[in-house]
Amino acid sequence: xxxxxxxxxxxxxxxxxxxxxxxxxxxxxxxxxxxxxxxxxxxxxxxxxxxxxxxxxxxxxxxxxxxxxxxxxxxxxxxxxxxxxxxxxxxxxxxxxxxxxxxxxxxxxxxxxxxxxxxxxxxxxxxxxxxxxxxxxxxxxxxxxxxxxxxxxxxxxxxxxxxxxxxxxxxxxxxxxxxxxxxxxxxxxxxxxxxxxxxxxxxxxxxxxxxxxxxxxxxxxxxxxxxxxxxxxxxxxxxxxxxxxxxxxxxxxxxxxxxxxxxxxxxxxxxxxxxxxxxxxxxxxxxxxx
Amino acid sequence: xxxxxxxxxxxxxxxxxxxxxxxxxxxxxxxxxxxxxxxxxxxxxxxxxxxxxxxxxxxxxxxxxxxxxxxxxxxxxxxxxxxxxxxxxxxxxxxxxxxxxxxxxxxxxxxxxxxxxxxxxxxxxxxxxxxxxxxxxxxxxxxxxxxxxxxxxxxxxxxxxxxxxxxxxxxxxxxxxxxxxxxxxxxxxxxxxxxxxxxxxxxxxxxxxxxxxxxxxxxxxxxxxxxxxxxxxxxxxxxxxxxxxxxxxxxxxxxxxxxxxxxxxx
Lengths: 290, 266
Fold this sequence. Notes:
Chain A is built from 12 helices and no strands. The relative contact order of chain A is 0.18. Helices cover about 75% and strands about 0% of the residues of chain A. Chain A is an all-alpha fold and about 290 residues long. Chain A has one domain: Orthogonal Bundle (ABC transporter involved in vitamin B12 uptake, BtuC). Chain B is of the alpha/beta class and about 270 residues long. Chain B has a domain of about 35 residues. In chain B, helix 3 packs across helix 4 and helix 5 packs parallel to helix 6. The relative contact order of chain B is 0.16. Chains A and B meet through helix 7, helix 8 and helix 11 of A and helix 1, helix 2 and helix 3 of B.
């Protein structure tokens, strides 16, 4: 097998991008999985995609548009999740479809060639620049740094927001912090992975890690490892079979999830169905009159 | 005379169109064990959220542990107030062990950026021992039964070293044996640690018989406040739950007996 391709600068950039993006996305994925809100990743990645298209259409930096619109989605998702006014699946599903509609509206309004828009949709990790890598590195460092610094507060909040609030932790602030980090991660990874596929890199590695451990610390480490592995193996397959890298990365992460599920020690654990969003017990917007 | 640790004056709380508390006033003294009884929708849980600063007051004043509750000081107050809710539906796959869950009680006290030290783990282990959960300390929390999870919730609450102990229907959805064990445990802890305890329930069987005081709530109002002998009578319960006295007698034979004793005495 000729691996000389890995000596080229563009491939080294891609390897570094998948390393950084894999870690950042997977760590965010742990929150998404543990808070039982998988649609957060979907809604925010499509919001970022719509924002980037807005930037392309109006002629400003697409990443600024992506970050702006993903933060707007966070501002909408936050109160809905916090107050439990709608079921998270419903509210996030509505935001997801709205953002997808807005994205395609911008794409339709955009004059000329749509190649830039399609790159944001599918991702183009092989054309990543030094600037893209620096941005990914900053976001990955911030995500990992904040999780390390505020591990105990995050652990309590994702376990049960109501309990975290009741012991005097700023659980609402932490929830918004998580949404903000999700927006930043999605924005930084948008050009590499693409708006349609990034959700898989957020969800799959964390969901795979969730199958394998009862330790939250190990879950973070395993998820990050699976995220990086998905990126690297995906790149290799992309090169070997000459197929799009975004697709191979996502398919690899899905395969890792399937293998983790097959070998999961939790397979024999009884099924569970959430009957209420975490934190509902003490959230002030829900019915407390009982 | 014991100090007043909770003073609620004309508290009004509303959630959208529903008024949960309609001008409630109550004083609770240090060391009291107060049972709060009422039907669903009476405002019992809201009363607890007002005490721990999570309820949003429309009007009225609340003073807890000498702190007047304002929107900004809830976090610091809650570090001194232990709260045990109903049995939660915990995902059996949740990647947290019993000891870690009990440690959450220390997190607020520790403050931001500080990690649990040896002393904190020692406190957590002592509390798990107190509630009889040492042997399950390293089990995933989702693998425990409802009764065991409530014991861990009580250990978590005690690890906070609280001055106030709030229990919101802690025995709801537990079987009879687990209910009895949790109730005995709560009472033992209250006595041994000289806490001030508020115990909310709509189930009379779940009411510790050794409450110092019973508060009856209905439709967001306090409709009775006195000793258990004064408050737990067939007539009062029938009025509280909107059922006939005969139904109360059928469903609560021990209360029927109490009531008959009262009737004979009178």
